[in-house]
Predict the 3D structure of the following.
Amino acid sequence: MKRLLLSLVVLTAIMSSCTTYKKAVRAMDSWNGCSKQELFSQWGAPNDVFPLDDGEILIYYGNTHFHHNVAIGTTTGSETCKMQFYINDSEKVYSNRFENCGRKYIMKKKRR
């Protein structure tokens, strides 16, 4: 019975993380096709901008999240959420990627 309960808990956690990842992908993909100015107006100034070949640019946003152990009052680690948007020479987002980001750190494009 304990094994069954543990299996259900593990399965639920795995399915939940897959759903969260899919929501994050949809949120990031909502920016494809928008202008660089729309991206900046909703996300603010990027952490960095890198020129690429053929007039394209890479827009980088990053947030570092610290893990705290409340019981002992110390920081136990950190990870950086990295979000990248690729902008073509027409100044439109055509691709993106993210790493170490939960859905709560990724903004979906607001409809106007």
